[in-house]
Amino acid sequence: MKTSAPAKVILFGEHAVVYGRPALAVPVTQVHGDVEVTDSPRAGIWINAPDINLHAELTSLPTDHPIAAVINRLFPHPNLSLLGRGQGEGLEINISSSIPVASGLGSGAAVSVALTRALASYLGQSLTDQEINELVFEVEKLHHGTPSGIDNTVITYAKPVFFIKGRPIETFRVGKPFTIVIGDTGIPALTKESVGDVRKLWTEDKGKLEKIFDEIGQISSTARRCIENGEAESLGELMDQNHALLQKLTVSSLELDELVRAARNTGASGAKMSGGGRGGNMIALVEKEKAETVANALVSAGAKGTIITEIT
Ligand code: PMV
User: Fold this and answer.
1) Of the candidates 146, 158, 80, the residue with the CA atom closest to the CA atom of residue 114
2) Residue among 156, 155, 48, 30 nearest 95 (CA)
3) Is residue 10 lining ligand 1, measured as CB closer than 6 Å?
4) Does residue 76 carry a pLDDT above 70?
5) When you count CB atoms within 10 A of the terminal residue's CB, does the N or C end of the chain come out lower?
6) Ligand 1 mutation target, pool 161, 187, 191, most atoms within 8 A of CB
7) What is the mean pLDDT of the chain?
8) Nearest-angstrom CA–CA distance, 243 and 239
9) Domain count within the chain
10) pLDDT given for residue 142 in this prediction
C-alpha cells in the first residue's frame, strides 16, 4: 500500500491565523511525503526512513518520536497485532520525503497524512478526510505547541484552503491559474519559537498586535476574492503588504528579506516570507515566463533551493 501527500505553502495570513484571522494556503505537488506499508517476514513493525537515517522497530522508539507518535496514537498496538496474519509476521513501513524539513512547507504534516492513509488502508479501515485531518492535527499539537491546524488541513484535502481556526474547512476556486516561485533560505527554523515570540509581543501590547492581525486578516480575505475572480495580478501588492506586517511581527529575517528583495528586483510582482519565518521559505508572484529568471536570481541571492509551482 503506497500513499503520497503534497507539501503546502501559506500564501497569506501566517501568524495572524493563530489568533483567529483567516489565512490562505495551497498544496505544492512538486514535492511530497511518501509512505509504503508492506508485509514483512520478520516480526514487529519496522520503520525505514532513510532520509533521516531511521531503521528501527516501533517499540524501540521513544513514544514521542514523531513517527512513533503517529502510529501509536492513531493505531494502538492491539489493532496492528490483530492483522490476521500468521505468527511472526510483521510489517515494514517505508517513509521518504522530498519536502525540505523545518522550512514551512509542511514536511511533518505531509508524512503524518501519508502514514495515516497508508496504515488505515493496509488495515482495511476507511477514514474520511475529516477523520484524517483531525487525527493528524492531534499529532501536530504534540510537536508544535499551539498550531492553528492550517498545515494538516491543506495537506489532507490537497486543495486551496481559506482557513479560519476552529471553523469548518473552506476550500476555494482559483479563477485563473497563477505562478509562484518558492525560495528556500536553507535555514531551518522552528515555528514553535516564532509563534512563541509573537505570543510574547502580543502579551506585552495586545492592542498593537491585534491591529496588525486585523490588517493581515483583511489581506487574506481580499486575496481570496482576487484569486476566485481570476485577478491574480493584484496579489503581488498584497504579498508586499503582508510581508511588511510580518516584519513588524519580527518573524522575518535578513535572509528572507534579501530573497524578497531579489525577487522584486527581477520582475516578481510581489513577494513575502511564508510560514513561521526567521528562516524557511519565501514566495514570489511571477508571470509564468519570468519564473526561471526570478528563481535564478533567488539562487544568486543565497537561496538553497527553489520550486516553481502553478496554483490551479
Ligand atoms: O511554518 P509553517 O509553514 O508550519 O507555518 C506556520 C504557520 C503559523 O501561522 C506561523 C503557525 C500556525 O500554526 O498556523
Assistant:
1) 158
2) 48
3) yes
4) no
5) C
6) 191
7) 92
8) 6
9) 2
10) 82
Residue 77: pLDDT over 60: no
Per the annotation, the verdict on 151 as an active-site residue is yes
User: Is the pLDDT higher at 190 or at 286?
Assistant: 286
Q: Are residues 185 and 58 in the same domain?
A: no
CA of 15 to the centre of ligand 1 (A): 6
Position 80 scores a pLDDT of 54
CATH number of residue 123's parent domain: 3.30.230.10
Residue 168 lies in a domain: no
Band of pLDDT at residue 104, cut at 50, 70 and 90: confident
Joined together, the cell numbers standing for residue 16 give 495572524
Q: Select from 83, 96, 80 the least CA-distant residue to 45.
A: 80
Q: What is the pLDDT of residue 116?
A: 93
DSSP letters for 90-156: EEEEEEEE-SPTTSSS-HHHHHHHHHHHHHHHHTT----HHHHHHHHHHHHHHHHSS--SHHHHHHH
276 lines ligand 1 (CB under 6 A): yes
